Recover the amino acids of this structure.
């Protein structure tokens, strides 16, 4: 039976991202920034997978035999690479429009992905070896409940990977002042006051029974685009697992 916990979906946020569905896969469209971010996110995720499951490192399908869930999947920019890495992928999004586009795109790529317009709190599908949620927690109605819901979907021995903007003056400048004016990010995408710093997100995950095992920043280099960085001033990724001992 589905959980009776209230949904953490913010309907206004879901509607905003639903309007972007039609051109989500256009690298020059309203999701252009996500296309630019995706390679560095995938690099980080692949390295995290190889550290967490070293027996499968180095192969093309390190997630073969594993179940993955991408929460807040949009139209599948991350879900599709996870499927190509061998995982049986479930992907959730709050906007029905995004799920429709995601299903159509995956079908065109010959990929089988279980896309659902379902709140993570209501998903009754057991534990997942890999849980990902990229640039999502800053858009939900209740970040603590959302972190707890992600933790609840993580199987024993599993790996959680998240990314989110930091709440700093530099992130406000980069992502809102510049990003939402001339940087290609649709206006109204971000509320700087809802950004979480690494300490705050770590505390939410710890309260949910997880331990953070790595945190890495994302910076912009004019020569190379987005890169992993020691600076977490704009955006960061982290990995977590169930608390040991």
């Amino acid at each position: 039976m589905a959980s009776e916990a209230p949904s953490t979906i913010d309907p206004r946020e879901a509607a905003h991202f639903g309007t972007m569905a039609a051109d989500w896969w256009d690298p020059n469209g309203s999701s252009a920034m996500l296309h630019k971010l995706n390679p560095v996110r995938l690099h980080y995720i692949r390295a995290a997978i190889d550290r967490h499951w070293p027996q499968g490192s180095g192969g093309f399908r390190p997630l073969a035999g594993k179940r993955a869930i991408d929460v807040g999947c949009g139209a599948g920019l991350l879900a599709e690479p996870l499927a190509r890495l061998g995982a049986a992928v479930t992907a959730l999004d709050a906007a029905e429009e995004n799920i429709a586009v995601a299903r159509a795109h995956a079908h065109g790529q010959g990929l089988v992905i279980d896309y659902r317009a379902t709140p993570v709190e209501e998903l009754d599908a057991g534990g997942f070896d890999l849980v990902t949620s990229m640039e999502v927690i800053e858009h939900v109605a209740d970040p603590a409940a959302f972190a707890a819901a992600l933790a609840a979907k993580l199987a024993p021995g599993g790996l959680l990977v998240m990314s989110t903007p930091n709440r700093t003056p530099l992130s406000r400048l980069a992502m809102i002042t510049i990003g939402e004016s001339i940087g290609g990010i649709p206006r109204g995408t971000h509320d700087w006051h809802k950004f979480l710093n690494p300490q705050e997100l770590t505390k939410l995950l710890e309260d949910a029974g997880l331990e953070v095992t790595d945190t890495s920043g994302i910076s912009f280099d004019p020569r190379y685009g987005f890169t992993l960085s020691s600076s977490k001033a704009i955006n960061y990724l982290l990995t977590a697992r169930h608390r040991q001992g």
